[in-house]
TrEMBL record:
<feature type="domain" description="CP-type G">
    <location>
        <begin position="66"/>
        <end position="225"/>
    </location>
</feature>
<keyword id="KW-0378">Hydrolase</keyword>
<dbReference type="InterPro" id="IPR027417">
    <property type="entry name" value="P-loop_NTPase"/>
</dbReference>
<comment type="function">
    <text>One of several proteins that assist in the late maturation steps of the functional core of the 30S ribosomal subunit. Helps release RbfA from mature subunits. May play a role in the assembly of ribosomal proteins into the subunit. Circularly permuted GTPase that catalyzes slow GTP hydrolysis, GTPase activity is stimulated by the 30S ribosomal subunit.</text>
</comment>
<keyword id="KW-0690">Ribosome biogenesis</keyword>
<dbReference type="GO" id="GO:0046872">
    <property type="term" value="F:metal ion binding"/>
</dbReference>
<keyword id="KW-0963">Cytoplasm</keyword>
<feature type="binding site">
    <location>
        <position position="262"/>
    </location>
    <ligand>
        <name>Zn(2+)</name>
    </ligand>
</feature>
<dbReference type="InterPro" id="IPR010914">
    <property type="entry name" value="RsgA_GTPase_dom"/>
</dbReference>
<dbReference type="InterPro" id="IPR030378">
    <property type="entry name" value="G_CP_dom"/>
</dbReference>
<keyword id="KW-0694">RNA-binding</keyword>
<feature type="binding site">
    <location>
        <position position="256"/>
    </location>
    <ligand>
        <name>Zn(2+)</name>
    </ligand>
</feature>
<keyword id="KW-0342">GTP-binding</keyword>
<feature type="binding site">
    <location>
        <begin position="167"/>
        <end position="175"/>
    </location>
    <ligand>
        <name>GTP</name>
    </ligand>
</feature>
<dbReference type="InterPro" id="IPR012340">
    <property type="entry name" value="NA-bd_OB-fold"/>
</dbReference>
<keyword id="KW-0547">Nucleotide-binding</keyword>
<dbReference type="InterPro" id="IPR031944">
    <property type="entry name" value="RsgA_N"/>
</dbReference>
Amino acid sequence: MAQAQVIKMYNGFYYLQTGREGDELLSCRLRGRIKRHKGAVVPGDYVEYELLEDGTGVIESCLPRKSLLLRPAVANIDQVIVTFAARQPDLNELLLNRFLVLAEWSGIPEIVICINKCDLLPEAAQESFLQAYRDAGYRLLLVSAHEKQGIDGLRAQLSGKVTVFAGPSGVGKSSLLNAIDERLQLATGKISDKIKRGKHTTRAACLLPLAGGGTVVDTPGFSAAELEQLDKGKLAWYFPEFRQYIEKCYYNTCTHSHEPDCAVKEAVEAGGICRERYEAYLNILQAINERKKAY
Ligand code: GDP
Ligand code: ZN
């Protein structure tokens, strides 16, 4: 049976990228027996399908997923590009850390940081910009959609993968996608228009195939508000550079905040962990604690 990826979902139809002539999508219905499970098939899924005589298709089954992002549901995402602006708005490191923790939590295998609007950042500042995050092991891409700086590198990073761009609005995610593939022509700038659109329609996510190879998901990823649902015992694990210290703490339930003989705190003092990252950790920990108290 033929296999293909679900690119979008609309009004009960599933649209498959089958690689047929003209890049045309194949519209499909679900076979009755898989219809009963809500969310049985979502964008990003690979499915088995059969072609019907009228030129449409029927999805017979869904292949196992590598990952699943909820709200909106998208399967098989390979990478998340956490996108912020260097300026306008000024980079909010706490928010950046929140997005990184969400990305780590989601289980999506590859996480990259992309800083847009580098045309607004003095060149001398670029070399060491966000060094703590590079030290933590994140690949950092400094780009400018307007100046077309770093766009080839970003395009290469997307090639052959399903990617979601996560980050606050106004940092230039749509502008970057337009710079990568000018056929996309996503609306940019007028934030009020975008918010309006978002309010009146709750549509499913959609995958956009890129000219340079790879696919992007047309949603902002996840919202930083979801963070309070996270299990605080796991929080430190989502700071990759903390991992080597966690098991050396005296208490195996150590939250790395007030406990004595904490290897994480010692690493902060000794310079092995960047203080800003540790403070972001404490801040998120507190947000989770306060959430728990509210119940
Ligand atoms: P999104 O909400 O993240 O999709 O952001 P948009 O792509 O809509 O861009 C928000 C604003 O930032 C728009 O006014 C863009 O013109 C501006 N912008 C986008 N990229 C750049 C850039 O590389 N440099 C500068 N200076 N402004 C940019
Ligand atoms: Zn500790």
